[in-house]
Amino acid sequence: MKTSQELTIDQAFNRRVIDIAIKLSAMAMIILWCFSIIRPFILITVWAAILAVALYPLHEKLTALLKGNKKLASAIIALVGISIIAVPSINLSSSAIDSAQHVYNGIEDGTLKIPAADESIKEWPLVGEKLFNLWQDASQDIQKVAGQYPEQVKSLSSTLLSAVAGIGGGILQFIVSLIIAVVFMAKSASLHLGVSKLMRRLMNDSGDRTISTTIATIRSVATGVLGVAVIQSLLSGIGLMIADIPGAGIWAIAVLILAIAQLPPIIILGPVAAYYFSVADTTPAVAFLIFSIIVSASDAFLKPLFLGRGMSIPMIVILLGAIGGMLLSGIIGLFVGAVVLALGYELMMDWLGHTSKDKIEDKATEGQQS
What is the mean pLDDT of residues 106-128? Predict the structure, then answer.
């Protein structure tokens, strides 16, 4: 049997365990509650932080020109940024919505014109013959084909319309993120101090190095990859709209996705240029083809201009981040996913590199001691 002293110790231990369990449960509930409250704003805030880090050098230069007026510099960046984002994006999204509605109405009314299928499609493995027959039937009577697959057509149409409608929400998220980003830049000193304290608390001496790696990676990807992709997409959209290409907004978005994935926009613009030769005169068609080649090759001089010395991040990391982010969070996830996965990759490489250095140094120290 336990003595009274042992029973007292057991009771005190049990009370302490229960007390700790209650405190941990209360903390977990508060943290979960706080996370649920801020969850709708996490993606916007993360993108705002990425924008703030990427645009901060510009903010510093503008602040210096304005004799240290950070608030005015932030306001100018916000106004110019919103103008640059809003005007082209609204035009492109409007074009994309019109194109989606045209396709939907054309399928419903049977007025959608589809060109005849090429005979070479028959040679495609597995699906060539079936795809050729389906394409040929659709080119002759789209309404008849749509009647054979009513559920699939309805699902495709609704998916297309909802995806295009989501572009408007993405534009609004971009604008809100930019406004938050300029607030971050105006309060950069206090925010940097707070982040430094947090990282030192979490990672000790590695905290400052992690912050430096994070800043370098964000600026590298945001300017050298995303910035170039946005420029190529906007240029493509402008050219497509001037040429009056159907679905200009959708093609511009496709160019954006390819450019972020580090693939040449000519993959999209090339077939569009070939189509333009069949519907336009030779001179404008040749001009559009030359324009498409210039836009596709523009990353050759835009990347050195924006990227600088940058970071060596594999293309597959950017591709997976962009596609995964878009599937998870829509159009804004396309940008955030690419940056976050690239950041995770760089931090892992940095950690592995320093771990190897630490082991070599430890072995050298042991050798000297022996």
Answer: 65
Q: Alpha-carbon distance 118 to 96, whole Å?
A: 27
- The predicted model gives 210-214 an average pLDDT of 79
In the block, tokens 């409608």 appear at 165
How high does pLDDT run on average in the chain?
76
| CB 209, CB 61: distance < 8 Å | no
Residue 136 and residue 255 share a domain: no
Looking at the fold, whether 192 and 322 belong to one and the same domain comes out as yes
Q: What are the tokens at 222?
A: 């945001």
3-state secondary structure 288-341: HHHHHHHHHHCHHHHHHHHHCCCCCCCHHHHHHHHHHHHHHHCHHHHHHHHHHH
Torsion of CA 131, 135, 141, 147, to 10 degrees: 40
Whether residue 4 is contained in a domain is answered as: no
What's the N-to-C CA distance of the chain in angstroms? 55
| Residue-wise pLDDT tens digits, 148-175 | 666 666 666 666 666 666 666 777 777 8
- Spatial distance between the Cα atoms of 99 and 245, rounded to a whole number of angstroms: 10
Min mean pLDDT across 8-12, 33-37, 101-105, 199-203 is at 101-105
Query: Domain check: are 341 and 221 in the same one?
Result: yes
Structure tokens at 151: 């559920």
Go through 299-322 and write b for each residue having 16 or more CB atoms within 10 A of its CB, e for each that does not.
beebbeebbeebbebeeebbbbbb
pLDDT over 80 (residue 233): yes
Domain boundary among 186, 217, 239: 186
Predicted local confidence at residue 114, as pLDDT: 67
- CA atoms of 245 and 279, how far apart (whole Å): 10
Domain co-membership, 117 together with 194: no
Global confidence as pTM: 0.65
The pLDDT, as a whole number, for residue 165 is 62
The pLDDT of residue 249? 72
Structure letter (DSSP) for residue 192: H
Residue 149: DSSP 8-state: S
Cα–Cα distance between 345 and 365 in angstroms, integer? Answer: 30
Residue 286 domain-assigned?
A: yes
One domain, residues 40 and 96: yes
Residue identified by tokens 């749509």 is: 146
